[in-house]
Amino acid sequence: MKSSKYLEMRRVLSQVIAVMAKNFLMVLEGMSVGYVTILIASLTDRNSNETIILSEAQTSWISSISPISSLVGCYFSGLVSDRIGRKRALISLTIPNFIGWIGYYFAKEPWHIFATLALHGISSSFTEAPVLTYVAEVTEPHLRGALSTTTTLAMNIGMLLETFICSMLHWRTAALVTCSVPILTLCMLMIVPETPYWLLLQNRCDEARKSLAWLRGWVSVAEVEEEFQEIQKGCSQREADTSVIKPTQYFKRSFVIPFSLLAFLMIWSSFIGIGPTTRYSAVIFSTFNVPINKFYAVVLMSASGILGSVLCIFSIKHFGKRKTAISSIFAFCMCHICIGIYAYMYNVTNLKFTTENMATSSNDYQWIPLLLLSAFSFIAFCGPKNLPWVLIGEVFPNEARAVGCGLISSVFYISSFAANLAYLDMIALMSFPGVYWTFAFVCFIGLLITYFLVPETEGKTLQQVADYYNEK
User: DSSP secondary structure string, 172-199?
Assistant: First the structure.
């Protein structure tokens, strides 16, 4: 007879495999972000031999075009996910990802780069709803928080892989190598099941039972009948035909309250410097004249983000989301202040797009910005970056979850576009230290909001979380 420990391991493993399969898409998204970091450094270097050289204005757009193009699919991603299913929605996204990486390889003009970035942005926007909904609907409450955090971990792994590949190869060759990842992603997604929630909403009860049995350790359907009945009860208030849209469901307090909170958190997370600092990290390292190659420094920064994501997983598991978020946001605020102080002390006021040594004065502490930016990435992915994305799949009611995820993602992309586009102008207006001290102030505002308004959802079922907002 199989031991209870063995059965529990199988139960956890099946859910981990399902989440890891969809995480391959997030690895691709992270690789796209890492690639933009390398493109900015490579195509703005006036001393390079590149056939494509971008102006400073074009550089602002290269960091911003993906977020703004992502608006195309944010709302529709929820509708598509509801219509064709989470799994098929995820599988379909491997095609534009593959085409995009081919596009980078053959790019000859700046607009080719912009068009490819836009394609990846649109693909990313259609990713959000099925990815976030899938992980919420296939995991058990005590695993959901930790496994939701692996979404950001996967993005960090993608950033690390791409920056490492680009540090070894020319950016065109790196794009060609990356074409293999969408193919691997497609293979992984083919082996995992559709979510039992979506199947129930289509009145496909037998398939839903089989899906749940797969997700609970490849057991028999009889062994998951009790949980199946609970899920079925939670889905009973929604009509099976998901093509029928009821606008009134988006005005209920169970939707409006979590939507308002998450909208604030998404805007807040865009204006604490994570996106712009990541995309311009190679240029920042060059400006500070760190003692190692700027691309290796970016790899180190990406690796720090992975460690932060891993710590976040364990911290959420043992301490919950609230304590993890509050402590990491406070540390992030301090990190911004330290970056600003260093830049102020050594008179670093603007970014310099060149391979020449850019620090205005040589000093014995040029390793400090390398340490600070690595700490920046580590702390960011311990909590501030993860918090909204962990909550997004949990707080909406069943009947509005997919569309809610898409709408909230659109809020993030609009604010992210604005933050990335304004970054260089903010530095020109307030200087580099002033920008990071401003980020520190915004961090503090988010700390207060998180402390007073963000509830603890760890260990609660999706129905319990929905009931909390319905009663609030």
Answer: HHHHHHHTHHHHHHHHHHHTSPPPHHHH
- Tokens at 456, concatenated: 């603890």
Domain 250-471 -> CATH class: mainly alpha
pLDDT 10s digits, 208-234: 999 999 999 998 999 888 889 888 877
Tokens of 408: 């909230």
Q: How far apart are CA 69 and CA 414, in angstroms?
A: 9
CA 463/CA 12 separation, integer angstroms: 21
* CATH level 2 (architecture), domain 7-192: Up-down Bundle (1.20)
* Distances, alpha carbon 83 to alpha carbons 255, 332, 432, in Å: 20, 40, 47
Contact indicator for 401, 129 with CB cutoff of 8 Å: no
Cβ contacts of 130 within 8 Å, gap of 6 or more: 22, 77, 80, 81, 86, 87, 89, 90, 93, 402
Q: What is the pLDDT of residues 86-123, one digit of tens each?
A: 999 999 999 999 999 999 999 988 889 999 999 998 88
C-alpha to C-alpha distance for 229 and 138, rounded to whole angstroms: 15
C-alpha–C-alpha distance, residues 26 and 224, integer Å: 30
Rounded to whole angstroms, how far apart are CA atoms 25 and 339? Answer: 33
Sorted by where each begins, the domain ranges of the chain are 7-192, 250-471
Three-state DSSP at 365 gives coil
Report phi then psi at 408, rounded to 5. -65, -40
Domains 7-192 and 250-471 share a fold: yes
Amino acid at 147: L
**What's the pTM value of the predicted model, to 2 decimals?**
0.76
Q: Determine which helix (DSSP H) or strand (DSSP E) holds 91, and give its type and residue range.
A: helix 86-92
- CA dist 178 and 167 (Å) reads 14
